[in-house]
Each structure stands twice: as structure tokens, then as C-alpha cells.
Amino acid sequence: MRMRVMAVTLFIAFAAASRLLPHPPNVAPIAAMALFGGATFADTRLAVAVPLAAMFISDLFLGLHTTMPFVYGSFLMITGIGRWLRGGSGGVGQTSGSVMRLGGAAAASSILFFVVTNFGVWATTPFYPKTAAGLWAAYLAGLPFFRNTLLGDLFYCAVLFGGFALVERLVPALRPRALVVPGR
What we know:
The chain has 184 residues and is an all-alpha fold.
């Protein structure tokens, strides 16, 4: 399974590196990396550590900011959604990995990221008064970016999960042990 861990890590590293390329605002692989790591790594420590490390390394190039605790907190929660995607079946490649379930997880991740990070902007910046009206204004100001966040999350989930499923078909050694059928 070492080969699978390396392959999943490479997929996440490439997704993190794509953050450094020019892209429309908020069309980024952040939630997809967390979902993918949570869903594909059997070891929970790797499911958290690898996407988090990839995110942090790319943030070193992009710049650090005051809302990072909120971004990373939402990232950890999204990894939990990825763990839910695994279900009890041992991997996303089995019945727990339906397209509808993955799409729902990606949409839930986008909403979670929006709620947590816009709260962070309200809490840590001087742009909004620290009142209920100020919090509401922060959420309203973030709405134009939410569409791109959702589109980016859906796109990168399709790329990561779909791409990895294709690679698993081509390289049976990457499949979770429960999915490898002897003689095939």
C-alpha cells in the first residue's frame, strides 16, 4: 500500500501546486484536497497531515494572512467530510463513492468553507463592525466569491477523484486491498 500512499500524495501535491498557477478568484483545489485526502488515505494521520502540509507549503509561496486559522480549521473539518465519504466500506472506490455523494460532499465543503472563513474575515479584520450586522455584511460581501468556490471545488473534486479512479483502473496495485480481485 506504500505505492497507493505515494500516488495519493502526488495527486494532492499537484493540486496544491495548481494554486500557484493563474486562476480565477476562489477557483482553487483547497476543499478538494481535504476531501480527497480524507477519503483516500486509510490512515487518518496521513489524511490530515498530507493535505495540510501541501496547503501550508503552497501558502508559503502565496503569502500568510490573519484568517489562516479559519482557513485551516475549515480544511480540517472538510477532511472529516472526506472521512465520512470513506464510510465503513474501506474506500471511496466502493459503494460510498457515488457521484451524487461526492457532489454533495463537495457542495457541503464549499458551504462550510464559506461560513467559517467569512466569519474569520469578520472576526480578524477591521473591515466590519463586531456586531451581528457587521457579520451579516461580511457574509453578504463574500457571496460573489462563493459561486467560484463551489465551481472550483466541484471541478477539482472531479479531477482528483476521477483522475485517481482512472489511475486505479490502470494500476491495480493502487486499489485498496479490499478492491483487488485475484486473477485480474
